[in-house]
Write a structure and sequence with these properties.
Rossmann fold; 2 domains; alpha/beta; 14% strand; six-stranded parallel beta sheet
């Protein structure tokens, strides 16, 4: 029996792709522990893994990544990664030393996993639920305009040097904690969706596509529509969804339209602030997205990678309304690959939303492209391919 330790950050977009992988390893008779915050205990235990708690506040994108994508300060992202490492590493390193796993598997937003593996001399695997920061990706879209001031980088370098010295780690640059790659890096998107993916090392970068695991905490859902009525699904994800202006615009745009609209508005928004719910809408703070997508014709989304991949897994074309830089990249990618369209948040109107839905739902080329990508996504291997690679890696690196 091989022992694996997963380390992740408290963010659904990073946790959800790993659940089926952890469950598959347990089903194969492997021993799996999973380090995460208490809010995720039930979710992790549903996979059969042993839950190992640490304490940390819920993660939110730093302000520098949610502002105008024309002027991104990437030092905000690096600072967030460094802070999570400073918080998590002291809580887990001695427990990992006692546990003595054969392999550490960590999300790229949890560089404490990489650091713990270095401290303990344990082989490590990097997980990426989104893009690999390749040269091509960094040269295009909003990330090409990302900047970091010299003073910001100097301050981060000083903090990183102090943390490295505390654990006797080799010196590294702040950028390394985001761009570091292991000998095995598992990416939960298909290679065709990664900018420049065709040129990336097949052995080192394994693109398995989405890792679908039916969520145990999903509420029951019953679609209440007129038979044959197409479904329009609207969601801005689990983090940046406190947008009453956007949801009111959706009410105005699609009330009395020939759509049954299913809308998730998130837990921080008071539904009464949106006004009366149109008769053709089903609205909730949280919905079982996988179940909804199986019955959806068009998805208006923020462009989070989980939502994007799940939509493509079920063959649903996308209208991306991005909220932060990575999502702008995804909107750009959806448009480039003919899988739907992307809209600018500051240019939304009733006419723009209606026209986008009409075009995406009625364009046979988009439909054909989405069906082709669905086949690509489903043939990428998913969690079984990931588990195969993990067990091969452990067998050769133990």
């Amino acid at each position: 029996m091989t022992k694996y330790a997963f380390l992740n950050v408290p963010a659904y977009g990073h946790v959800n792709p790993t659940l089926a992988v952890a469950h598959e390893l347990v089903e194969r008779g492997e021993q799996v522990s999973y380090y995460l915050t208490e809010a995720f205990r039930a979710t992790i235990e549903s996979t059969g893994a042993t839950f190992q708690p640490y304490q940390m506040d819920e993660m939110r994108p730093p302000q520098g990544l949610t502002a105008n994508p024309q002027n991104i300060n990437i030092s905000h992202l690096l600072g967030m990664l460094l802070r999570t490492s400073t918080i998590i590493l002291p809580q887990v390193v001695e427990r990992l030393r006692a546990e003595r796993p054969d392999c550490i598997i960590y999300d790229f937003m949890c560089p404490a996993g990489y650091m713990a593996a270095q401290v303990l001399g344990i082989p490590a695997i990097n997980l990426r639920p989104s893009y690999v920061p390749s040269k091509e990706m960094m040269s295009r879209g909003p990330l090409a305009r990302a900047q970091a001031s010299g003073s910001d980088l100097a301050a981060l370098q000083e903090q990183l040097d102090a943390l490295s010295a505390r654990y006797d780690l080799p010196s590294m640059r702040p950028m390394d904690i985001w761009t570091h790659h292991e000998d095995l890096n598992i990416c939960f998107i298909p290679r065709a969706f990664q900018p420049g993916g065709e040129a990336m090392d097949d052995e080192r970068f394994l693109f398995v596509g989405p890792s679908i695991f039916m969520r145990q905490d999903a509420p029951p859902f019953e679609l209440k529509r007129v038979e044959g009525q197409p479904v329009l699904y609207i969601s801005l994800g689990t983090v940046m969804n406190n947008r009453p202006d956007f949801f009111r615009l959706c009410f105005e745009s699609f009330a009395d339209q020939p759509w049954h609209v299913v809308m998730a508005h998130g837990p921080r928004l008071d539904l009464s602030a949106l006004g009366p719910v149109p008769a053709n809408f089903q609205v909730a703070s949280y919905l079982p997205q996988l179940e909804v997508l199986q019955q959806t014709s068009v998805f208006i989304t923020h462009g989070g990678m989980n939502s994007t991949m799940e939509s493509l897994f079920y063959g649903v074309p996308l209208i991306v309304v991005p909220q932060q830089p990575e999502q702008f990249m995804t909107g750009q990618r959806v448009s480039e690959l003919g899988l739907g369209t992307a809209l600018k948040t500051d240019e939304l109107s009733v006419a723009v939303l209606r026209q986008a839905v009409e075009r995406v739902s009625g364009d046979p080329t988009i439909r054909a492209n989405v069906e082709a990508m669905q086949r690509t996504v489903r043939s990428s291997g998913g969690y079984r391919q990931a588990a195969d690679a993990i067990t091969r890696f452990a067998a050769t690196h133990s």
